[in-house]
Structures are given as structure tokens and as C-alpha cells.
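User: Here's a chain of 238 residues. Predict its fold as C-alpha cells.
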Amino acid sequence: MKPRAGGALTSIMIVLTLTTGMIEAVSFLALGPVFTAMQTGNLLLLAFALTGGAGLSPAAAGVSCAGFVVGAVLGSRLESSVDTHGRRWFVPALLGEGVLLGLAVLVAWRTGVDGPGGPVTGRHFAVTALVAAAMGVRNITTLRVRVPDVPTTLSTRALTAFLGGLPHVADPRIGSGVRHEGRRFASIGAMFAGGVLGAWLLHEGVRPAAVLGVPCALVLFLGVASWVVPERRTSEPG
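Assistant: Prediction complete.
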């Protein structure tokens, strides 16, 4: 059973985009620098680090890539298995992602992962791996949901489509109009707002574990909320 298309699903994906901005703020500013959701940037960081880029850790980038791969594979198997039995796969996908983020929060808190500026150690790698695994699940979920213009873990495509849909540009093959442009603008704005919020909290001395706790709580809330709503209102065959 796939989630029913509509405003509620789009809103969920916008909130997930907001959490991506916060997660990447922690990943880049406190765990690396490294990316955990946007693996294009992470692969480039890995390439730069391998050629001696100052301040970059090939180990951190490699751990993130590995964690992401594991998360994507496990997420795909989980969602496909649930879907095969004719059940809602969106709910366990959100809950599974939330659990992985919760484990990352727990490890970060118990091992004392501090704010920006400290050396990158094994405890940072452990948190990075768990967050990247959660983002691997997230990306599989996003691919399966296919909400137009809201990819949740990157903004390049949404920004390009937004510019291509402006009134004086309006490429008919991209799609234009208030509905399309509104989704794109919301997606871009949510990513930016999440990044600002995450970076600001870290700048104010909030521990990375607490900052990660916000996306974790939001993802789990969305999963539980989707679970308690009757299936006929949230899902449809396919």
C-alpha cells in the first residue's frame, strides 16, 4: 500500500526536507566535515580528501558512504517486504529511520560528541554511520513516494525546476503554475530553514545530540501520526 497523494503527504515530505537541513548542519559542522544525506557532496568530499584536501577526512566520508549504502539496502528490503504483504510500507519506513536517528542521538550523547571545532574520532564515525544509514532509508522512501518537486534530501532539482517554471521562463515540459512552484519554493525554503536552525543551535552551544534529537522526534512523530490515522485515509493500492 503506497501513501495517498495529496496535501498531507506533501506536507510530510516538506517537514522531512526541513530535518535534512538540520541533519546536514550537524554532519558538516560537528561530525566531519561530512555529508550524510546528500551523498553527491559526500563523494566529492571523499575525492578531495583522498588528494590531500586540507581539513578533510577520507575516513569520515568513507564511513558515511558505507552507512548510507547499508541503510538504503535495508530500507529497500524492509519497504519491499511490507509492500509485498499488502501493508502500508510508509509507516515502518518512517519509524525505522527515526529509530536509527534515535540511536545516533543516544551514541552522540553517551560518548560526548561536542560541537564544531573538535578532532574527528571514532565516536564521530559511529554517529555518522548511524545518521547516514537513516538517510539511506530516507532516500529509498523518497524514491518510492515520488512527491513531485520535493526530493527531501537535495535542493538542486527543486531549485532548477522552480527557475524553469517562472512566468517569463515557463518551460512547458517542466511544469509551471502556483501548485508546482509552491511545492518547489517550500522545498527549497525548508532545506534552507533547517540548515539555518541547525547551524544556529550549534553556534549557541547546543550539543549535537540535542540538535539531532529534533529531526529524530519529528520523524518519529510523523511515523506515529501516519500509523494512527486509518489506513483508508492515508494509503491506496499500488
